[in-house]
Design goal:
By secondary structure, this protein is an alpha+beta fold. The protein has two domains: about 35 residues; about 110 residues, Double Stranded RNA Binding Domain, CATH 3.30.160.110. It is about 40% helix and about 25% strand. The chain contains three helices and six strands. The chain has a six-stranded antiparallel beta sheet with strand order 2-3-4-5-1-6, with helices on one face. Helix 2 packs antiparallel against helix 3. The N and C termini lie far apart (about 50 Å).
């Protein structure tokens, strides 16, 4: 207890440490909420304009097949122009799989949120997606870092 009077006039008031600790706690809580931890994998398949008619449908079919195989359900998200899949592992941990046409290519993005490492389902999907794209598209395939 401090010898300083409380802000409301009661004896044994607030210590400066209490208010600093409260502020620190609120700042740390805010940072934790604002900075959700997560892991991600980003893959790209480049294409020439003349290849779009074959690569885009094939990319969607690959995403659909892998999502079904890994029991990840479809969802609608405006940022994912070709395909979007999602699974909730219990409210604070989820997996998002997004396929989008970007310029002269198709991007496959896999995110696992509120974790610092891949879970079994995300890790399995990540490896199978990478291997499938590398086999199917060869030199057109690249992994973004």
């Amino acid at each position: 207890m401090s010898d300083l009077p409380a802000r409301d006039g009661r004896p044994g008031g607030d210590s400066p440490l209490d208010s600093r600790m409260n502020r620190l706690f609120l700042v740390l809580l805010g940072l934790q909420v604002a900075c959700d931890p997560g892991v991600s994998a980003n893959y790209r398949v480049s294409m020439q304009p003349t290849e779009a008619d074959s690569i885009i449908p094939l990319s969607g079919a690959i995403a659909n097949e892998l999502a079904q195989r890994h029991s990840i359900g479809p969802q609608t998200d405006q940022r994912c122009s070709l395909a979007d899949y999602f699974v909730d592992f219990g409210g604070t941990h989820w997996l998002d799989f997004c396929v989008t046409r970007v310029g002269n290519g198709v991007e496959f993005q896999l995110f696992e949120f509120r974790t610092t490492h891949w879970g079994a389902k995300g890790d399995s999907l990540r490896h199978e997606l990478r291997d499938t794209l590398a086999i199917q598209f060869g030199p057109r395939f690249s992994e973004a870092r």
